[in-house]
């Protein structure tokens, strides 16, 4: 190895780990017979030296990080370094992401992954975005990084995956972020981001995963999201979104997961969601939706999970929901639904405890499936009373159990009287 590169490597090792006396134990760390786990080297193209291309610390069998480990800014001085992984390295001693003044321009680093480092604090230096022009994967998750996302992030034009989740980031999502046209995955969840989602988010045409959940984002979901035709996963739950969902959502034909729980939407459920043929999970709970469950939801043939609990939904459950052969989790509890449940015994048994219909006062069960009523927490329908009322079915009291009610039609009464008379005469004789 080049002597200066070797010394830089030893400095990094001493900063991070006390597992070994690195300089004496590994005098030739890139030599195959003496190399250590956690380091990868490759021969240079323009010279005869081996160069460090990968560092991996914190997850076995790689070297452990010591309690006093701090972020080694020297990693940016290794000219051929392509990948860095620090997992649970900074757990006891507070440290920040720092950049050395002698950092080469540009860096060859393609992946920087720092996960589960609770003592990693401070902001992301804008110099990092300006320097790492070759970066394709940036993961700085599950730490205590704060501050705003600098607009210089737009300089990471090669970025494919960006994960800044589970931190303490604040401020708004910078519009400049939507200039990263190669992004496939964007995860900003579990932070303290505010403001609205940039209207220009539709520029991220290659995006497959978008997770903005558990922030304090406001406003409506921007119309341009309908342009994200490659989107497979979208999570916007636990924010303050409200207002109509964009009509263009129906264009997301590849969307498999739509998770939007816990938002004060205060609208009717959009029928357009029934036009997403690959949708597997639809979670819209605790969001003040009103109106009925659209019949178009019965067209979601790949649906496995439908969560609509704790809203203000009214009307009946669409009959077609019972024909969704892949569904295994259905929760419509704590609504204002009414009428007879359109599910037969095989459907009820298949879902079992994954079916929750509770706290819908006017919802009731077909008398033919009455044996299930105790498990479901709802009453059995009284069809005879409903027939007289002419406006649907009404539930029996729980204490009535499986009683269905006797019809009061005159011809039925005459027949019953006739049977009683015959039995009385036979007894006398």
Automatic annotation (TrEMBL):
Q: SMART domains from the xrefs?
A: LRR_TYP
Q: From the Swiss-Prot or TrEMBL record, give the protein name.
A: Uncharacterized protein
Which compartments does it reside in?
Cell membrane
| Keywords linked to the UniProt accession | Cell membrane, Glycoprotein, Leucine-rich repeat, Membrane, Repeat, Signal
**GO terms under biological process:** defense response; response to other organism
Where is it chiefly localized?
A: membrane
Q: Which GO terms describe its cellular component?
A: plasma membrane
**InterPro entries membership:** Leu-rich_rpt, Leu-rich_rpt_typical-subtyp, LRR_dom_sf, RLP_Defense
